[in-house]
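From the pipeline queue, job 12 of 40. The input is one protein chain; the requested action is below.

Action: predict structure.
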Amino acid sequence: MDWNFATTLIGSLPYDNAKLALDKVLDGRVSIPSWPQLPSLGYSESMYVQTGCRLPGIDIDIPGKKITVDTDAYDPTEIYTAILSDDIEYFEHPKKYHCGLYEFISRDLSQFQAIKGQVTGPISEGLQILDKNGRSVIYDESYSEIVRKTVNMTAKWQSKILSKFNRNVIMFFDEPSLTLLGTPFASISNDLAVEWINESMEGLDCKKAIHCCGNTDWATVLRTNIDILSFDAYAYAHTIAMFPDEIAAFLDRGGILSWGLVPSGDDLIASETAENLAAMMKRNIDALVNKGVNKIKILQGSIISPQCGLGGMETDNVDNVLNMLNDVSNRMKGYYKVGK
């Protein structure tokens, strides 16, 4: 499938009403719609809660906005029984944590090029959940494995459900904490990060993406078994051009670049224009082409999105983002004469 500057969204929207949020997502400005997380409803809509709510022994503190577990006192029997028997239904997403998802699948999604879901990746999920001593559970060998298996099974359940509504499903693994690799805040090796991400994606029958909305070692990310690399192109596209060989190899195997080009901050969106963003994207494409990356493969394998989720924006600015996203996409299609 050629993507030709199709558009999608990243995670959250700033509404406290799922119907209103989906009316925006599905009004035609986004060609690959996604179900929205709704953080205005509270911590119950946190991506860490949504992905981790089936983990054994966890305490989800909604008022305190944290997830903890006593790694000395949980019982893994039930969840391991589900994992080992491939009981995907055990990982059904609770409606109380997924208002946007259930509104999403109540709509007609069949006419879209593809639809997008998301889970939190194993690195970010494992770093966010804390044990009774305040230490991230990613450093507990046994519990970290359960986190990875849970991410995998959660993604499988969601992908299975979404595939009932559109045959082309993209599953994003949101990994903001990849920016911490190589620092004291994420004391795991790059090799281990690759291994754990691959483990969490194993067996998924859909397109698999990693989204990281900061700068990281893109060569490491591209060693994972992803089909789509989603990055903040507004702030960090120049860092992608530092890895032309890896990008070329990724595109050669059918990889897709999801350019987070449209700013997701209120002040930034107010000062930007579609014309400027399209010119910025052309320059970044040229930078890759000048380093030997195949231009046609870039064009055919490019998606455009906001930098990150829009959950922190003023609601009045959501339309500005969606309009600019659609406008930039149309400008790029027209300039390169691709797509409809």
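Job complete. The first strand starts at residue 6 and ends at 7.
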